[in-house]
Each structure stands twice: as C-alpha cells, then as structure tokens.
Amino acid sequence: MAKTEPNFYQDLDVINDPYDYFDMMRSKGPMVQEPHFGTVLVTGYDAAMEILRSKNDDYSSIVSVVGPIPPMPFTPEGSDISEQIEAHRDSMPWADHLVCFDGKKHTDYRSLLMRLLTPQRIRDNEEYLYGLSDRFLDKLLKKRMCNIVPEFAHAVTTYAISDIMGIPVPDRAVLLELIGAPPSQVEGDADFKIGPDPLHRMKPRFEQYLRERLDQPGTDLMSELVQSRLPGDVQPGINELAQLACFLFGAGQDTTSRLIAMAVRVMAENPGLQDRLRNSPGMLPDFIEEVLRYDGPVKVAYRLVRRDMQVAGIDLRAGTILTVCLSGGNRDPEHFEDPHTLDPERANARDHLAFGKGKHACLGAPLGRLESRVALERLLARTSNIALSEEHHGSPGARHFRFEPTYTFRSLSDLHVHLTPA
After folding, report:
1. Which of 127-141, 182-196, 368-382 has the lowest mean pLDDT?
2. pLDDT tens digits, residue range 27-45?
C-alpha cells in the first residue's frame, strides 16, 4: 500500500473529517493494514465486534490510549508476546490506568468501580443535574451568545462527575484546567507529539481527598472508594485508589462533554429536527443514540495482538496493533442503512460501537446518557432557537468547525451559538 495514502495519525484533514478515510479503507476490506505505522485498521462492523467482544486473552489493551505512538519499547518476538508485554508494561504510556489493564487485574478493578458507580447513585444525581444545567443556562441566556464547548458541555459534565465523586466545589474548575488537552495530539502537518499523562498532575489532590475520607467519611463515591476491597479482601493502597479516582474523573467528564457539544451542533444545523426535539423531548434518548452512532466522541480503540491468530479471515502476527475504528464501524453500510444520514428514528441505532463493547466497554455509559439527556432537555426547554454563529462557523453550505488535533477522539474545539430564550 503506497504511503501517498492519507495518514490517519498525522493528517489534519483526516482528523477533521475521518469518514471519507474510513470509507476508503473499508472499500479495501473490513481489516486493512495502513502504510504509515503498520497498524491494521478495522473498519467493518462485524470484525470490530468480533475483536471487542472477545472473551479470551488474545488481545492486550496496553496500547488502548495512544495506539502506535510512541512505538512499543520492545521488538515483538515469536508467536506469543504475552511475557514481553508484562516485562515492559511499566515503560508503556498510560499503563497504570484501568483502560490499559488486562486479565484478572482489569476484571477486579473494573468490578470495584462498578460496585460504586451504581444505577441508584446515578439516578440520585438526576435532580442535581437539572439544577446544574439551569444554573449555567441562566448565565448563558443573558448573553444570548456562547461557546457551548467550555461554557456548557465541559462545565456541566465536570461539575456532574465532581458531585458524584465528592470533589469540593472550589476545586472543580481548577481540576478542569489541570486535566488539559486530550492525549495523542498532532502538531503541524507532519509532526506529532504525545504529551505527559495529564492525570498525573491531579493525583496528589486525589490522594489528599482519599486520606481526608479515611478520617471523615461521607456518602460520596470517594468515601466508599477508600474503603473498597478487591477479591480476597485485599485493600488497594492509596496510590492505586488515587489513580482510579483520577481516571474516573477524567473519563467521567471528557467523553460526555464531547457528546453534548456534537449533539448541539447537529441540532443547530437542523432547525426542523431541533423543533421536533423541543416539542417531543421523549425523542431525546433515541436522538442521543443516533448522535453516538453518527459522530461519536471516540473514533478508535486499540488492541495489541498477543499471539498469532486469524480474525475475519485475516492472519495477524503477534505484536500487531489493531486500530478498531468505532466510528468506521458505526458507518458500515453492511450494518447501518444509509449510514451517512442522521436519523433519530433509526431502528438499530443502539447497535453503535461508540461506548465500546465487551469487557472494556465504557462503565460510565449510563451516567453519560443521563448527563447528556438532561443537559439537552434543559437547553431545548429554555430556548426557542439555537443557531450557529456565522461569524465563527460560516454560512449554511459553507460551514467550518475546528476539532482538537487528536487521532483517537472526536472533539470540537469550540462551538459558538446564538441562543434565543423561550
């Protein structure tokens, strides 16, 4: 395959609009090796499902945050590299986060968090979310013009996860600043960088919160987290628990904020749909699922092949990095009819891959769905119209948007809108 083909990891045009690229690669087959970093792109829905829902240990998630950049710190040798992965785990980026764990360790720590992020805890947060959304909208509607990304989407989701976790109110805006930009960023046309793990900067704060909960426990999630146990009545150390808390905070606000921003963009570009949703708020859950399918917040997930194997009739060598294109699978015409059209009444929209599938599926998906539904419901109820700023985004037919320069996530940098109060 010629290297003149677009570079998924470095071309800003592909980062800003990946869907033509996914279609081009899928036309060659559901799994195709790209020439720039040698990863195998999985753009077919069925092949992606086969990998994501695998119940064995054929794949490692050690590369799940940054994929092939930077290169692995070892050269794969032999037909099974499981021992090499474990020998070099500590030297791989983000390896100390839950999303990169494998096997029993992943199962144990994921189960620990799932016992804390219960459906009841999420439901109990709903009333707070309504009041929170309205407080931000009170300010925005006075201005009638705002940047939805930081002023509403990021603000609502950051305060929402902070409330569940029990982060002190004065610290919430500070933590949002500390988390910084997403990983796997691109600079210029050809250069790339991987910045330091931003969650590490927050870790001392979360260690302090957890130690305070040891002395003065409350009813928040962190109070339960510091008392939690792994199987065998093993108590994790403060270091491990602070790492989990950092990850939960980061994941709890980031993905949902991108979803809310994209949903507002879709509504602002479709006044007729916006009016339908305003008049029939019961459509919002289905609309959110279709936005997740149509233009979800996470473009790809990564897996490292542990041992020689075959998937979808394709031979894979141990050490191959699979770029599982969630957004590519979500627009596979073999599974979704007319996939490039947003249809809030699509019968199989919930088949989407936006939150992943299988044992690494997003454990915060129920909270994300609730946060986005409430935020959008209040935004629609408090407005009679949401319109894109032509000054910032151009006129109809010539729209332009800026996206964060990251190959993993689908993240609007800004979204300027005019809000007409109801």
Report:
1. 182-196
2. 999 999 999 999 999 999 9
Domain 12-421 has CATH 1.10.10.10: no
In whole angstroms, what is the distance from residue 349 CA to residue 337 CA?
Answer: 10
Q: Is the peptide bond before 344 cis (omega within 30 degrees of 0)?
A: no
State the residue for tokens 């979704």.
336
Work out the angle between the directed axes of helices 169-179 and 155-165 (0-180°, nearest 10). Answer: 120
Using CA atoms, how far apart are residues 412 and 143, in angstroms rounded to an integer?
Answer: 21
Centre a 10 Å sphere on the Cβ of residue 184 and count the other Cβ atoms it contains: 24
User: CA dist 379 to 71, 126, 160, 267, 345, Å?
Assistant: 44, 15, 16, 11, 21
What is the per-residue pLDDT across 301-320, written as a single tens digit (0 to 9) for each? 999 999 999 998 889 999 99
Provide the residue ranges of all domains of the chain, joining segments of one domain with +.
Answer: 12-421
Identify the CA nearest to 160 among candidates 370, 414, 378. Answer: 370
Token pair listed for 237: 């150390």
pLDDT tens readout for residues 323-382: 999 999 999 999 999 999 999 999 999 999 999 999 999 989 999 999 999 999 999 999
